[in-house]
Amino acid sequence: MTASTIERDQDAGATSTRYHYTRVVEIAGRTVRARLERGVYLNHSGAVAEVLTDHTDWSTLAADDLNNWWHDTPPPSVEVNAAAVLGPFAERLLHRAAEILAAPPPTVTLSPHLYRAVSALLATSIGYNAECRIDPNDITWATDNGGTLHIFEHPDGSVTFTKAHRDECPFVASKGGQDCDDECYFDLPSRV
Ligand SMILES: [Zn+2]
User: pTM value?
Assistant: First the structure.
């Protein structure tokens, strides 16, 4: 973890049907916790990093897909040392949380027009009755590849959603007013 991480609390426990590990740290002044639970079944398990908001609620920062850790952990038993088994996965989640907190994305408020534009994005790219569930791996993959998501509302009512430009591109700097300088290039990602 980074030098600015302060340990606050941790909790671990194991029964014959589940074990859990929670670690609470302070990262750059924010209270963050990693919470992992391993049940007998996949759907009784989960791994998330959450940040304490001003309203004393926990808000999810990052989640680890079950396929990334569940199969590498032993089934529940009172003999399991939950902190030893789940500790490394908590560490990984807290690293991701620290990265996210270091570079917070802009808070996006969806206007009614933008909300309908997202509906159109889904409808035109998948189908008019589209449904799409994005899992945590997809979010990580999309964050790690291509450009940052930019959304530009144009005066004529059209909306551009783009991950095609680097942050310094004139198209981005002018919020869609100027053309791209054709220097935006991203490596072809490998899909896991
Ligand atoms: Zn560009």
Answer: 0.62
The ranges assigned to domains in the chain are 5-102, 112-173
Under 8 Å between Cβ of 101 and 60: no
Q: What is the pLDDT of residues 9-56, one digit of tens each?
A: 999 999 999 999 999 999 888 899 999 999 999 989 999 999 998 778
Q: Alpha helix (H) ranges present in the chain?
A: 82-102, 112-125, 136-144, 170-173
Distance (Å) from CA 162 to ligand 1 centroid: 10
Instruction: Give residue 69 CA to ligand 1 midpoint distance, Å.
Output: 37
- Spatial CB neighbours of 190, under 8 Å, sequence gap ≥ 6: none
Say how many Å lie between the CA of residue 161 and the centre of ligand 1.
13
Closest CA to 151 of 118, 189, 128, 103: 118
Tell whether the torsion through CA atoms of 73, 74, 75 and 76 is positive or negative. negative
Distance CA 64, CA 46 (A): 8
